[in-house]
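Quick look at the format.
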Amino acid sequence: MKKNKGSLMKRLCVFALCVQMTFSLLLTGCGSKYDQVISVTDAAASQVMVIGDYTVTLSDVYLYLIQYIYNYSLTSADLQTTDSASIMNTVIAEMKLEYVEYQLAKQSGITMTEEQINQSYASAEAFTEFFGEDFLNSYGVAKSDVQALFDRQMYITAITEKATQDMTNDYLAQYEEEYADLKFTSVYYALFPSIQYDENGEPITDASGNHVTLTDAELAEQLAKANELKDRAIAGESMEDLVQEYAIEYCSGVEKNYVGAYSAELNELIATLEVGQISDVIETPAGYMVVRMDNKDDQEYRDYMIQSLAYQSAGSLLPTMQENWMNASGVVNVFPDDTVLASIDLTKLCDVMNANNLVISSGENNGSN
């Protein structure tokens, strides 16, 4: 479904050439290559819905639809399996949320830095340059509409980041109290596995999906190697270098976790090790392991884990907060003018955008949200 349009720089060069050609055509009396679906004036005058202090027009809806088609590389063929009404409902719902968040940000007294303002302007310019004012105007979208969109997005990003940070701080205080006595250790381990791995370091499984274990002879050889590595490490050789020498990097490395996180036997082993001490070989379900204690109370990692946990918890709660914002605003009872929306030919819009390569390609982004 995705098409390779080449690099952004290449497309921008082509775009610049197109601008020159279009200017030349205008001088000779030729018109736009795009059919005029609706004028900028008529689209701006076509009210779709009112959200708080803002009137959403047909210009705005077309702009959001253009983004949606671009982001998902939607084609008219996709509309045979995807309900157009469902897409429209998704876009309208997104618009409602964004207008509510934007107004909340403004009411909250959030201000923008000069850098943020300049970035909004640059993003709007890149968006307009990629799609071209000729195309945007043919669907009633003015350059000022694009700038307004990116200005709103700037405030929306700020309010959601602030809400997430506030919730993170709340969770942080909660987790700091809950895990006040929790300690984390940092160890380096060398593992001689008891199962087979392929050349990419991935476990080999049988037809039933079970790991393929080594033979008794192979296990004995692994145990011998583990004891040899242990002796050499105790004698002063670097475990990291030994892991490379024995080619077991794919199943060895640094392990950080809270005290008591492992099996009873491994927990007991870790508890007895002092910093810098090398353990005896221990048999685990994964194979034969040698452990070096690097930090018995890793405060830095503990702080990182609590911060990460708080941030994840806040992120998972954000949709609930957004739903609360929507309910408090009353926007759930705001319905778009279906007569105005009925004038939109989504299939034709998809065809025009795909015919002119105005859809996203894998790994590319051209200024749109």
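Next, a different chain entirely:
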Amino acid sequence: MKKIWTKYNGALLLYSVIIFGVFAINYRFKNLNTIEINEERSYKLVAMGD
């Protein structure tokens, strides 16, 4: 087991960093999309009020 761990330690680290990065980017774009939708709604309310 220790041989396998030392042999593939770099690959496991690389894949875990990639997976963590994918989740972080997904969360960021989801958050940005939510902010953008809220801004569009507020612009429409202001335009309808005038």
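The first helix runs from residue 2 to 49.

See the schema section for token definitions.
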